[in-house]
Fold each of these.
Amino acid sequence: MIADVRCRWQLLLLLVLLLLSAETSARTLMPTPHEARIAACIRQASGGHAWLEKTLWGLRDQEAGWIGAEIANSNGTHDLGPLQVNSFWVPKLAGLLRRKPTQVRSWLIDDPCFNVQAARWIFLNGLSVTGDYWRAIGVYHSPTAWRQRRYAASVAHHLKQRFGARIFASHNIDR
């Protein structure tokens, strides 16, 4: 009788674990409304360029921000929104757009498409200045060379995870 009760408990525990596993898998496969919105913004910002869409996904996966994010950094800046655009860029973007910095900051935090477009601009500006894809990825993160290299390696890891090892075969992400 004791063995029968133990067996039932083990079966019940196994069933609960399987149900929890299935629920976790379903959540992983079904994006939240926020994630679906960010994905649509990434598609739009890429303008049909697969390499740019993959790049934005690499930055997104590395940064892992969310709509409404405002994360303080030790240097007094903040990382804002889904692609964690650093507040360092707010005055520059405000000047380009002829908008108040407070408005641009608010957009970066709460408007995922504005946030993704700003990330796109920062990356493409870095690409224009450096002429090098991986340096531009690094510039997105930091002006410091060793931080750029470390960040680019981490983004490369995220790209490989999302798109598979063949992402770097031929010119899948290069222009």
Amino acid sequence: MRKLSNAIIAVLLLASSYAFAAPSEPTHQVSIASAEASQVAALATQAQGQLSAMAPVGLRVDHVDLDCKPSAGATLGPIAPGSVQFTSRAFMVELQDKDRAYYCSATMDASREVLVASHEIQANDQIERTDFNSAWVDAFNGSTGALSQFPDHGPYVSSTSLRAGQLLYQSELLRPIAVRAGDMVMVLVKNGPVTLRAQLLAQSQAAIGDTLTAINPAGGTPIMVTVTGPRNAELVMQ
């Protein structure tokens, strides 16, 4: 019995010795991986800084990822202006390793400041800047053509219904019709210091700021005038 007990103890001690002798993951490999990750992060931060300096007003670069494994000691070259259009996440960077230069693909996360509806808007509702808030949205998720500034030369009506938080595009802005075909339009004629008023017959419909063809009912001569308001226009003679 004692011999059996001694044999069991011997086996346990051997297994314990083997367990203690089992090699763990080399620490230098962990250090190398950590150094490589730090290098990639540093290069990505430098690229983000260059992109931020080139970004147009209303766009910010939030994050950059390099899609390659740079060689040890690689440095980032300057990103050429015009090589990044900020219409796509993807771009290229040039890395320099001693006398060798090579390119690395990269991607960016960016945000764009745009106007979004502050409340529900129905089609043909008159709208102005106060109906919209500024918001930062994904720069590449369908927001490229969204407006960041409310345009001048209003007033405007909505061409379609908008939900609260929906982006504003130029196509959703219409100037209300101020003159329709057959309307008698009061035209202010300016010729230097002389100002005259005349009633002309509109030949088509037009919004404020549009050019309209009108005729004098008495003579029938067509005249191009600029619409300034409901059934009002002006003609500035040089």
